[in-house]
Each structure stands twice: as structure tokens, then as C-alpha cells.
Specification:
The complex is a heterodimer of chains A (about 160) and B (about 230). Chain A is α+β, with helices and mostly antiparallel strands and about 160 residues long. Chain A contains 1 helix and 10 strands. At the A-B interface, helix 1, strand 1, strand 4 and strand 5 of A face helix 1, strand 5, helix 2 and helix 4 of B.
Chain lengths: ~160, ~230
């Protein structure tokens, strides 16, 4: 009986320690997962946008102000390598970056069904170069931030 | 009697020892049975996230290495190096890239026309960059004037040392260039006022978030529109 009491006591202490350790690990895990998801969202958004932007031909909006000061917006319009007008914009309700294709012709604009990135809290495109070929992209997802610069290599 | 009592107590001690042993083994096995799946679960969660992060890291790395390789090849062409054959792998920092230059003909000004391909591969991820390059004759010595244009990138694992693959890539890019020509023809078909009207009319079918900035975009489009061609 004494041994059983001691073993139950020990099990309770050990169980308590393990449960406490598990709950702490769960909290850490949740924080790490959240941070990792944020980084992942930022990486994915930057990679997809810079990939298309790099091969594009000119940035239509935003462009530097008339006094040559920089201009930022959560929307960017550019002409892609096929001459179509592409727009990336931030949907604050769904926290998504969406892509809209506006044909440089008579056809109607269409928003892609699949967004460029999800879980994005903020995005800003800043026109830097006077030739409308250089743009900075700032993306924030949860507590993760990303800053990318893209130079358009096609004329 | 004394002997019998002693045997009984020995048997009881043996039983108690056995049950303690069994209880200890039960606890150890139980602990292992709980801990192993939990540790495995944590490691899987961690490793899948790491794998995803590595995937994008490799994508970015191949892209940047291919761009850096392209710059290296253009620099050599600027230094009057001409008519490359497919080249052995070279490095950009720690990362390897391969490059091929195929001469495609001569331009109106006597310049050599080439397609330049650079490719970088990290594990399963590859990025190939293709561009047209016009290389002029040195007058009288390098640097040679270089004009590079119509860049096109793909993540498909083409073999850039093979002419067939290089031609396949050119064909894919050719489709995009035809679409570009179509959009330029559309601009050339209208006057500035007509083009502005057509583009402004698209405002009604744009998502709500875009309608406020669209007029600025239309102004930029009109200012860069190709002039109307008289038929």
C-alpha cells in the first residue's frame, strides 16, 4: 500500500511536470509556427511578385512624384512581358494579395481565382527610380517583415 | 514452523519485488509510448516548415545565381568574347551556374545576334534565364556595345546545352512576344483619345479597390501609347 501510494505520488509529480512541459512546448510551438507561417507568407509573396515584375516592361503606378520624391501605395500596376496590364493589390478584408489582369485590348479585366499570397497584413510598393523600372516591396505578415527591391530588366 | 514462516516471508518478498519490477517496467514503457509519438510529431511539424522555407530559399537562390551568371556572360561579350560554345559549369560565389550562347544571325548594322542562356540548379529546383543579345563590332577596341533584351525565365528543367531545348524555350517565349505584338497593334490602331476612352471604360469592371487609381494609370498608358499608324 505504501509503495502504491509512493508510486502514485511520484506519477502525479512526474505527470504534473510532463504536463507543464507539454503546455510550455505547445505555447513555444504555437509561437514558432506563427512566426514560421509569417515568414513563409512573406517569402511566397515576395518570390511570386518579384518573379513576374522582374521580367516586366514598365511600372505604371505608383510612380515618383513630380518633385522626384518617392511614392508608395498598396497597389501596383505594371505592363508584363506580354504587354498586359497586371495589378497586385491588397485586400484588407481577406488579408490577401490579389492579382488582376487588365488586357491591353478590348477584353474585360479578370481577377485571378488564386491569390498571390494569403495572411498578409500590409504591403506597400514604393516607386524609387525615375525610369519607372525600380520598385521596393514591403510586406508584413503577422510579426514577419520582408523588404525586396526589383529592377525590371525588359524594355 | 520457523522454517515454514521464513519460506512464506521469502515468497512474499519475491512477489513484492516482482510487482515493483513490473510496475517500473509498465511506467517506463508507458512513458516511452507517450513520448515517442509526441517527439516524432514535433519533429515532423518542425521539419515540414523547414522544408517549405528551404524550398523558397532554393527557388530564390537559383534565380539570383542565373541572373548573376547572365551578367557575367554579358560582361565577357562586352569584352569582345565571341561565339561561345556551351560552357562548363562556373560559379557565382558558392553557387554553380551553366551558360550557353548560340549565335542566331547578323543584324542590319553588322552586329552579331545571339541568344544567351544561363541556368542554375539547387537540388530539385532549377531556373533558366534566356535573353537576346546584340553584340556589335569593337571600334577600335573593347568595350563592345551590347544590347540585351527580351528576358524570359522558366523553372522548367531544360538542358541549355542542347539546341533542341534552347529552341523549345525560344518558342515558348515567342508565344509571349506574339501576345506583346498583339497588344502593341491594339495601341497602334487607335488615336490617343480613342485609346483613352477604351481604357477608361474598363473602370466599371475593375474591383472596387482599383477604381480610385485607374485614371492615373490610364494617363500613364496614354502618355506611353504607340502612335497610331495611318493605313
Amino acid at each position: 500500500m505504501v509503495e502504491l501510494t509512493i508510486s502514485i505520488g511520484l506519477l502525479a509529480i512526474l505527470g504534473g511536470m510532463v504536463t507543464h512541459w507539454f503546455s510550455m512546448q505547445r505555447k513555444y510551438q504555437a509561437r514558432i509556427t506563427q512566426s514560421s507561417e509569417g515568414q513563409q507568407n512573406v517569402l511566397m509573396a515576395n518570390w511570386k511578385m518579384s518573379n513576374e515584375l522582374r521580367m516586366s516592361r514598365s511600372i505604371l503606378y505608383p510612380r515618383p512624384n513630380s518633385d522626384k520624391s518617392i511614392k508608395s501605395d498598396s497597389i501596383i500596376y505594371f505592363k508584363n512581358s506580354c504587354g498586359e496590364i497586371i495589378c497586385y493589390y491588397h485586400d484588407k478584408n481577406t488579408l490577401e494579395i490579389k492579382r488582376c489582369v487588365i488586357p491591353n485590348g478590348v477584353a474585360a479585366p479578370a481577377v485571378d481565382k488564386k491569390p498571390i499570397a494569403q495572411g498578409i497584413n500590409e504591403v506597400f510598393f514604393t516607386a524609387v527610380g525615375v525610369e519607372n523600372r525600380l520598385v521596393d516591396i514591403y510586406v508584413r505578415s503577422l510579426e514577419s517583415y520582408g523588404l525586396e527591391s526589383v529592377y525590371l530588366i525588359n524594355d | 514452523m520457523i522454517k515454514i514462516t521464513s519460506n512464506k516471508s521469502t515468497n512474499k518478498n519475491v512477489l513484492i519485488n516482482e510487482s515493483r519490477k513490473g510496475f517500473a517496467i509498465f511506467m517506463v514503457l508507458g512513458f516511452i509510448a507517450i513520448m515517442v509519438p509526441v517527439v516524432y510529431m514535433f519533429s515532423q511539424i518542425g521539419s515540414s516548415k523547414t522544408k517549405q522555407a528551404m524550398k523558397f530559399h532554393e527557388h530564390l537562390k537559383t534565380e539570383l545565381t542565373a541572373i548573376s551568371g547572365n551578367t557575367a556572360i554579358l560582361s565577357r561579350m562586352r569584352g569582345n568574347v565571341r561565339e561561345f560554345a556551351p560552357m562548363p559549369d562556373e560559379t557565382s560565389g558558392e553557387d554553380k551556374f551553366s551558360a550557353s550562347v548560340f549565335k542566331t544571325g547578323d543584324g542590319f548594322l553588322g552586329q552579331d545576334l545571339h541568344i544567351v542562356l544561363t541556368k542554375s540548379k539547387v537540388n530539385n529546383h532549377a531556373f533558366t534565364l534566356l535573353c537576346d543579345v546584340e553584340q556589335f563590332q569593337p571600334e577600335p577596341s573593347p568595350p563592345v556595345t551590347i544590347i540585351s533584351h527580351d528576358y524570359w525565365g522558366t523553372i522548367e528543367p531544360y538542358e541549355i546545352s542542347l539546341l533542341a531545348d534552347a529552341l523549345a524555350m525560344q518558342n515558348f517565349r515567342g508565344v509571349e512576344l506574339l501576345r506583346l505584338e498583339q497588344s502593341r497593334d491594339f495601341e497602334r490602331a487607335y488615336t490617343e483619345a480613342e485609346y483613352k476612352n477604351i481604357m477608361s471604360d474598363k473602370k466599371s469592371s475593375l474591383p472596387e479597390e482599383l477604381s480610385s487609381s485607374w485614371s492615373t494609370v490610364v494617363n500613364a498608358l496614354v502618355s506611353e501609347k504607340l502612335p497610331k499608324e495611318e493605313s
